[in-house]
Amino acid sequence: MGLVDEDRLRRHDLTDEEWARLEPLLPAHPRQGHRWNDHRLVINGIFFRTRTGCPWRDLPGHFGNWKTIYNRHRRWSGDGTWEMILDRLRAGCDEAEGPAWTVAADATVVRAHQHAAGARRAPPADVDPARLAPAALSTPVRPRGTGALRSRETLGRSRGGLTAKIHLLADSRCRPLARVTSAGQRHDSLGFLPLMSRLKIARRCRGRPRTRPGRVLGDKAYSSRAIRAHLRARKIKAVISQPADQVQDRLNRGSRGGRPPAFDAIAYKQRNTVETSKPYCCHMHGSLALPSVPSGSVFVKAA
Question: What is the pLDDT of residue 70?
Fold first, then answer.
């Protein structure tokens, strides 16, 4: 019975193949001072906690001291180590598709934990305040109310409670490429331009990172003049379906309505990749505050 429980607890641990890809990207031991505890054991503990959502103190004992695991996760989240690892993991992920590299955008609402609200007034002294600042969303065409669009905690208050929205870009292999978090009531389209600005895929060799895909897929929420004009200006093909009201409005205008935007129905079928990628980020607990483990774990296991 004990062996069965042990196997069940370790089912999310890194395999030898995954560890071989991840180990060269991790920080080396310092030349002076205390050496790092076993990276693999600590990362497995972080994976376990983000997957199950258990309190840090309740981590199984075979992962070691829970405080060590917590401190490692917090330090690497605050100083950008997780971001660096993720950038190096996804380097060159566009090479297989070449100029026709396709990405898909979507957003999803997640319920916030009851303890999510109530951040400290002063940010932690050991974390750059710029890393804690929420993303600046696009300005709505018709703003409602006088409240600020940027909320420090990126939490939306509605009848269902506290909610947050994850805006995500994913490639054709369901791997997350960029992520923006906003309050739950913000429209999907407001996070599109910040998402595109965060899309930076490093080269395997020398050169500037790639920021422009060949094609962007999006559902009806992204069908706006501003988004289509942005993609057209950057010479990116837009594969975005039109909602019925926009189609009817164009027909009502007759010849003044112009031609319908181009739409590739075959390419649009690939949009399920971002739908498949969303659950990986949504089911990771305690991972929305800073760029963190979930996206990296998806990349290690999907690459």
Answer: 92
